[in-house]
Design brief:
39% of the residues lie in helices and 19% in strands. It is built from eight helices and six strands, in the order H-E-E-H-E-E-H-E-H-H-E-H-H-H. The protein has a single domain, classed as Spore Coat Polysaccharide Biosynthesis Protein SpsA, Chain A (Alpha-Beta Complex). A hairpin with a 5-residue loop joins strand 3 and strand 4. The radius of gyration is 17 Å and the shape is globular. Helix 7 runs antiparallel to helix 8. Strands 1, 2, 3, 4, 5 and 6 form a six-stranded mixed sheet that branches. It is an alpha+beta fold and 183 residues long.
Length: 183
């Protein structure tokens, strides 16, 4: 992703994973409304979760969330990174994705960005996120949660917090589903 960002020539960056889709009509909407926001704003929207046939199976709405540093660090470490429109110059200001992280590089990046940028919500789905069992974070969510915890502790996050409980719940669901199913 860092290589792609380096060669991008536009003023904004949005990324699509190989199995995701842009929501229909979102690019004209974003282009039309970009002038409403200043360059120190990161725009984020909702995402629709789709199945392998591109049918919407769940709609998410992030309008209630305050993506401040403390919120992301201690309340909710789950961010809609695919549904974010980044000003390209953000990468010059705060750096690129850390290559030593395999799963939570986007969480780390958003956490760093939240120190210097305002997050502004667009109440529209930007991305159609394909959910399937072979997705990188689905197959490796224990490693994903471990990286998130490490990043949170490096940033002086609270050990006992809603964010920790979120990760614990995911880990317990893994053990319930895969480890204890034999008993």
């Amino acid at each position: 992703m860092n290589k792609g960002i380096n060669i991008a020539t536009g003023n904004y960056i949005i990324w699509l994973n190989g199995d995701d889709e842009l929501s229909p009509g979102i690019l004209p909407y974003l282009i039309k409304n970009l002038n409403l926001f200043n360059r120190d704003t990161i725009l984020f929207g909702n995402l629709d979760i789709i199945d392998n046939n591109s049918q919407v199976i769940n709609k998410t709405n992030f309008i209630h969330q305050n993506f401040s540093f403390q919120y992301l660090l201690n309340i909710c470490p789950s961010v809609p990174t695919n549904a974010i429109l980044y000003p390209k110059d953000i990468f010059d200001k705060i750096g690129f994705f850390k290559t030593n992280l395999q799963f939570a590089f986007d969480y780390d990046f958003i956490l760093r960005a939240s120190k210097n940028y305002i997050f502004e919500h667009i109440n529209k789905p930007i991305i159609r996120f394909r959910h399937h069992k072979n997705a990188k974070t689905s197959k490796n969510f224990l490693q994903f949660d471990k990286e998130i915890f490490k990043i949170r502790m490096q940033n002086k996050g609270q050990i006992v917090s809603p964010a920790s409980l979120y990760s614990l719940k995911r880990i317990l669901s893994y053990y319930k589903k895969y480890v204890f199913k034999f008993y």
